[in-house]
Amino acid sequence: MKIRFSLFLLATLLLATAVSHAQTRVAFIDATKILKRMPEAVDAESRLDQLVAGWNKEVADLEAELKRKRDDYDRKKLIMTDAERGAIELDITDLKKRVDQFRQDKYGTNGELYKQQAELMKVAYNKLLDAIRDVAADGKYDYVFDRGANDHSILYTNAKYDLSIPVAKKLGLETNDMFNIPLINNPLNPNKPNTPNNPNQPNQPNQQTPQQPPPGMPH
Question: CB–CB of 200/113 below 8 Å?
Answer without folding.
Answer: no
